[in-house]
Amino acid sequence: VTRKMTVTQTVQAVDPKAHAALHQNGGGDEIDVVGLSGLLADAQTALAHALGSAIHNADTLAAISTLISDGTIILASQAEAEAGTEATKRMTPLRVAQAFAALSVLPRSYLAGLKLSNGTDATNDIDIAVGTARNNTNDGNLTLAAAVGKQIDVTWAAGGTPGTPTGGLSSSLTLTNDTWYHVHLILVSGVVEVGFDTSVVAANLITDHSATKFRRIASVRRLTATNLAFFQIGDRFILADPPLDVDADNPGTSAVTPTLLVPLGVNVEAILNVHFFNNHATISYLYISAPNANDEVPSETAAPLGNLVASNDMARENDKLQVMTDTSSQVRYRLSASNGAGVTRVRMATLGWIDRRGRDD
Question: What gap in Å lies between CA 31 and CA 28, rounded to an integer?
Answer without folding.
Answer: 10
